[in-house]
Design a protein that fits this description.
Two copies of one chain form a homodimer.
Chain A: E1 3-6, E2 15-18, E3 30-39, H1 42-49, E4 73-74, E5 80-86, E6 98-101, E7 104-105, E8 117-118, E9 130-134, E10 138-140, H2 148-151, H3 154-167, E11 175-178, H4 184-195, E12 199-204, H5 209-214, E13 219-222, H6 227-234, E14 239-244, H7 254-257, E15 258-266, E16 274-278, H8 279-283, E17 288-291, H9 297-309, E18 316-321, H10 325-334, E19 340-344
Parallel strand pairs in A: 11-12, 11-14, 12-13, 14-15, 15-17, 18-19
Antiparallel strand pairs in A: 1-2, 1-4, 3-5, 3-9, 3-19, 5-6, 6-10, 7-8
């Protein structure tokens, strides 16, 4: 089969396109998925670079678990496709179903929601024509009105956004700031928060404003300007929640922009992970910073429901064939278009 | 009456002892308390100094609400005494009751647990022979086996510790680190966490070890040594909760010392409020930093129950007459003894 092999932690040249990989077989309790689409995500790029650091050593070359991943590895956290083979003990009626793969692996029986591995990091992922996962990881989306390409936008971006909004307990009528709002997780958070009935203030650049308003943002703040001033002018009494995937210097603003009992929920830090926090701004007003990775099983099931009812409307910026992965990641990092970058794998169905 | 007047934000010389203050009268819905004891707390010192900073301006001279307080002010957040007069509309049977004053003022009907003011900061407090508060702020401790001096240890130190443990959802069998463990809030957190059935690792200095073990600490870590190494040797898989009132450089350690889903709860920052956080250590393991100030009404009621059943055992380091407030605060800041520093006001009963 065709697959993109990651040979080591490093730059784009560590990604090698091969056409001679052996198709993996589904073991007991597993299914094999013929992949039709994946998408480009920061996490695949950070895992390639080993950009996650380690406890006590922020610059260590490591995957998200704080240690290097094992090579060769097929990356690709987002996977949509059809079930093409089932292992022993798996219901045969799953065959031919169109499925969305939950990329979170949860193998700690004492903490069933703990993410212990991720598709494309601890096990081979979707940058290949076939992948094998536990049968419990696939969710039927045969009847979703969304295309495979649209479905491939969901697992990481919308799963992460769903996890963040849920962990921050966002509810109807609350005010929510979303940073990096034109990116995958950001755009998903704008749509999901608006669908929950929240008032969304999206932080982005003017070129994305129209798309963000169409996705449900009530206000679009220009990150090139004075964000604190812009936010105070539209939400003078502060906001309930900040959904942040940016981190960096801008992070210092957020605690004082929150109401009493407000929450910053963080799932990434594209502008830099090491930030400065004035603890007084947290403790004097019972504010909190909540870390969030991906989603729980229950949160993913809610996302699958939204996919099956067509309640979400993923925006696609561009499509590339899998073999053009390096070009796709370069396009993604350029961030000039709104929405997700799709990788087409095998045939679209 | 005798009272200590704070004349401006500044050093100890801004505290002036006076014997000619007019005794305040209880208005409608209020009670007057003849104060018998108070105690020394960081918050009174920080309020005197104006050391709370302001949003966007960490070095601004301000009270805890981010603006200067109004002068002259009678400080004193902890208050124990007898009800000596009641205003109109207040049940006369409260007269002569021994009471503990809840120092948190909550005047936002939309957020009934929001602390909008604090005794000794927004209204006159316990550094005087008499104070006036709303009748809803006093709690009957007439039948508590604790002395007035012991009761005066409770509101801020134990109230804050109770709020922290509750907001961090500490439960039986969990592992809890307590920093600044020989201080007022720290010692209270050690006792209350041990009473909840948690395994307590106290961070302090060797001279306080015996007192901390007697208060329920299973392990005492020397903050002069390598804390990460000491903690890993007794809790190799990490801890559930860090109860922190220290902040400063040591704060950088805590995120990576937590288990997945772990929590750092913060109510102060004696070693410095502006800290560095690696957001990856939060988001990759769903860890959170929760700010906590004082306590809710319900948490204070639980504390009053513990006082009335004698379940808590406050440790007293020293006692000073109110007029020696400057000497008492100097002794407190020296931190050589374990426990609370009591201010004796009026007659002990």
């Amino acid at each position: 089969m065709q697959a993109v092999i990651l040979t080591a932690h490093g730059g784009p040249d560590c990604l090698v396109v091969r056409d001679d990989r052996i198709i993996p077989g589904a073991g007991s309790g597993q299914v094999r998925v013929a992949v039709s689409a994946s998408s480009v995500n920061n996490t695949d790029i950070w895992t390639r670079e080993g950009a996650y650091g380690a406890p006590g050593n922020p610059t260590a070359i490591a995957g998200w678990r704080g240690v290097p991943i094992r090579f060769p590895r097929i990356q690709g956290i987002d996977a949509v496709g059809h079930i093409d083979s089932v292992g022993s003990g798996v219901d045969g009626s799953l065959l031919e179903r169109r499925v969305l793969v939950d990329p979170a692996i949860r193998e700690n029986p004492e903490q069933p929601d703990e993410v212990t591995g991720v598709l494309g990091s601890e096990i081979d992922g979707a940058f290949a024509e076939y992948l094998v996962v536990d049968a419990g990881s696939v969710h039927d989306v045969s009847h979703s009105p969304l295309t495979d390409a649209q479905l491939a936008c969901l697992p990481t971006a919308y799963g992460t956004a769903m996890g963040m909004l849920d962990r921050a307990e966002v509810s109807r009528g609350e005010t929510v700031v979303v940073t990096g709002a034109s990116g995958g997780v950001g755009m998903a958070a704008v749509q999901l928060a608006a669908a929950l009935g929240a008032v969304v203030c999206a932080v982005s650049t003017p070129q994305h404003e129209e798309n963000l308003r169409r996705s449900g943002a009530s206000f679009v703040l220009d990150r090139g300007g004075d964000i604190a001033e812009q936010l105070r002018s539209v939400q003078p009494s502060g906001v309930n929640v900040v959904v942040d995937v940016v981190g960096g210097e801008m992070f210092e603003l957020w605690p004082s922009m929150l109401k009493v009992d407000g929450c910053i929920v963080v799932a990434g830090a594209v502008a830099g992970p090491v930030v400065s926090v004035d603890l007084r701004q947290l403790y004097l007003a019972q504010r909190r910073i909540v870390g969030s990775t991906l989603h729980t099983r229950r949160q993913f099931e809610r996302l699958v429901d939204l996919a099956n009812t067509g309640t979400v409307d993923p925006v696609i910026a561009a499509r590339f064939p899998l073999a053009d992965i390096r070009k796709a990641q370069r396009y993604f990092l350029d961030k000039s278009e709104t929405g997700k970058v799709i990788l087409e794998v095998g045939r679209e169905t």
